[in-house]
Amino acid sequence: MAGTPAIGDGASLALGAETRQEQPIILIRGFGGLSVEDEKKIAYQGFNDGTVYPHKRGENYIYEGMILKFMKSRWSYFDATNVIGYHGQKVELPEDMIPEELTKLSMPHDWFSGHKIVIDPGMALRLTATLTDPSKSIWVFRYYDLDNREQFREYAEALKRLIDFIRILAGRNGRTPKVNIIAHSMGGLIAREAIQSVYQKGEAELCINKVVTLGTPHQGIAFQVVERWIGLSAGAELERFNPEKQADRTNAYSYLNFSKHFPPERLLTVVGTNYRTYGPVAASWLNRAFSVAGEFGANYNRSDGLVKQHNAMLPGAPRTFVHKCHGGSDSLVTSREAFEIATRFLFGNVHVRLNLMKAEVTRGFDFIGKSEFFFGVSIKPRGVDFDLFHQSAEAENCYGPFADAQFRDPEPAFGWAGSDRLIWEGWLDTTSRFTPVPRARTTTAPDTTPSDLVMRLDVYVGERDLFGFGFSDNVVFRKQYYIRAVFRDDSNTLIERFELHAREDFSQPLGDTYLTAQGWRFTVSGTGFNAEMLLSFATVPETGPPVPVEFDASPPAVAVATPAAFEPARPGEVPTRTEPDGGGVMGWLRRQFG
Questions:
Q1: Rounded to an integer, what distance in angstroms lies between the CA atom of residue 255 and that of residue 193?
Q2: For the residues 432-447, what does the mean pLDDT come to?
Q3: According to the model, what pLDDT value does residue 194 have?
Q4: What are the φ and ψ backbone dihedral angles of 17, each rounded to 5 degrees?
């Protein structure tokens, strides 16, 4: 396309490199149903809808919706949606009506005329003249306004066109940004179509920074009667939901081909688990009747009501779980959880991985029925009363079922997040300064409570009798732990120690914690279950992939950030290479925190 932003001329970020700097954000809605005329009247396509959390307080009580939350956040994004026009017919605009200020920005005439998606000259002129940082702009992609539901590729071509527009309009001071994409449901398939079919191979990662998908059926929808349920007027759209076609490598848009076109580690899949609150009852029933392989038929409904959890994942891409349904009120797209997870993935400066090293179930096992065990965790940071990762019996998303008491089954139906029994990988945004938790004061002496970072880890092990002779919902083990990183000095630059506590007020410390070369190992134990876990870290630079941290376990503990691309050491291995610490005692982490 004429006018496509130049790459590699010093005007853009490092070639293909990911960044946690603010980039323009494109929001893409999901499937519109049988008729979309009413959908077109929704100004922000559902991204301005929020959720009320009646049992929470303060800032956590009312979530105002994604767009308003971005605008009120410390990133101070602003709405730029009206800069682009979406039309059912081609727009014709005389060339002399394009302001000279815009033509000087290498914007050809056909960006304003001759297409269904065009730049509005007046709004574009206002955007380029404003003092607001255009990298902090947010855009809603209104693809249904194009009035062509039979040509799915047209949506993807329009998205690429929009990205080209934004990169020129938001470019300033010799810098051409990439874009971040947050897409709900079918919106994620449109993003993938653009990446896999419209961009030339290797080009998409130069223009798109990161992608977050909310309940996107990357591997299709499990039940084959979807057309009879939703309607027949959107055949091209429904074709992308077909699991057989998504699994066919000969189709350019197959999910199996994604990694050939875009680094999968730069796409986060947010998977919904609460099918019970999804409106269309038929969908939830069909998801139970049409299970994916290994789900043992109608015993499970691992879905968000419409999309199976397994099918919302993408090979090689990180994943997380939110206990919300697919769409409507109180859903993935309207949840505070989705916002908190997405922003940490886009802007986070610390990458965390949690692995299961050892495990032993010490009670349970039905003598008559067929026992199967499930293992899961939930993770919540202090200060934000929402899970960054949620597993539970109710969500039907715990790892398993396991027949082996040490969880060594080679291929459980619901498998680990990665090799070496990876439980969770996530991102923390620690660039804002933390303040100590207030303590009860019984003296007038100065408060010497140190600054710290705390996450709550909720560990669950359950047992189910598959044949129905015994109890179907035994809780073998459930316990909450508080993981605390304590900072050494008043300047909040060094971490002094890691701690494990049984109580939120840190009045009940737990032992059995120690540093290894790979990270921090700790034990969880109690009646029915014992386990050892590994918490490892990588720093996320402003530009470039995460850099792993190697720990020198000899006192004083030193953390060393290695320059290699993020490939964490396998549990049990000790890196043979050592490097100087650069003057920091675990300072890599707290320097990012400050």
A1: 10
A2: 46
A3: 97
A4: -75, 140
Of residues 35 and 171, more confidence is placed in 171
CA distance 272 to 216: 10
Distance between CA atoms of 315 and 219, rounded to whole angstroms? 10
- Counting Cβ atoms within 10 Å, is residue 311 exposed (0-12), middle (13-18) or buried (19+)? buried
CA distance 70 to 61: 17
Where are the alpha helices (H) located in 272-431, listed in sequence order? 281-289, 336-347
Q: What is the pLDDT of residue 532?
A: 96
Q: How many whole angstroms separate alpha carbon 271 and alpha carbon 256?
A: 19
Neighbours of 33 (CB within 10 A): 13
Question: Scanning the structure block, which residue is given the tokens 């549990």?
Answer: 571
First CA to last CA across the chain, in angstroms? 44
Distance CA 90, CA 112 (A): 10
pLDDT of residue 443: 46
pLDDT at 553: 58
What Cα–Cα distance (Å) separates residue 204 from each residue in 157, 179, 555?
Answer: 12, 10, 46
Q: Which of 222, 105, 223, 221 is nearest to 167 (CA)?
A: 105
Whole-angstrom CA distances from 91 to 143, 410, 455 are 15, 58, 53
DSSP state of 538: E
Can you tell me which residue has the tokens 């100065």?
446
φ/ψ of residue 22, rounded to 5: -60, 130
Lowest-confidence pick of 190-194, 358-362, 429-433: 429-433
- Phi first, then psi, for residue 456 (nearest 5°) are -100, 130
Q: Which residue reads 């699991």 in tokens?
A: 243
Task: List the domain boundaries for the chain.
Answer: 25-347, 351-593
CA distances from 437 to 242, 384, 455, 497 (A): 50, 13, 13, 17
- Residue 579: which of 560, 557, 555 has the closest Cα? 560
Q: Which two tokens stand for residue 373?
A: 């065990």
DSSP letters, 187-232, are HHHHHHHIIIIISPTTTHHHHEEEEEEES--TT--S-TTHHHHH-S
Render 427-485 in DSSP notation, one character per residue. EE---SPP-PPP----SSS---PPPEEEEEEEEEEEEEETTSSS-S-EEEEEEEEEEEE
557 pLDDT more than 90: no
- Type of residue found at 229: W
The helix (run of H) or strand (run of E) holding residue 25 is strand 25-28
| C-alpha to C-alpha distance for 415 and 398, rounded to whole angstroms | 9
Largest CA-CA distance found in the chain, in angstroms, rounded: 84
Residue 82 near residue 145 (C-beta atoms within 8 A): no
What the block records as the tokens of 120 is: 């509005």
Burial (Cβ within 10 Å: 0-12, 13-18, ≥19) of residue 337: buried
Does the 25-347 domain belong in CATH 1.10.1020.10?
no
Residues whose CB is less than 8 angstroms from the CB of residue 207 and which lie 6 or more positions away in sequence, other chains included: 5, 7, 163, 164, 167, 178, 179, 199
Sign of dihedral through CA atoms 160, 161, 165, 168?
positive
Residues 115/161, Cβ–Cβ less than 8 Å: yes
Top pLDDT among 4 and 150 is at: 150
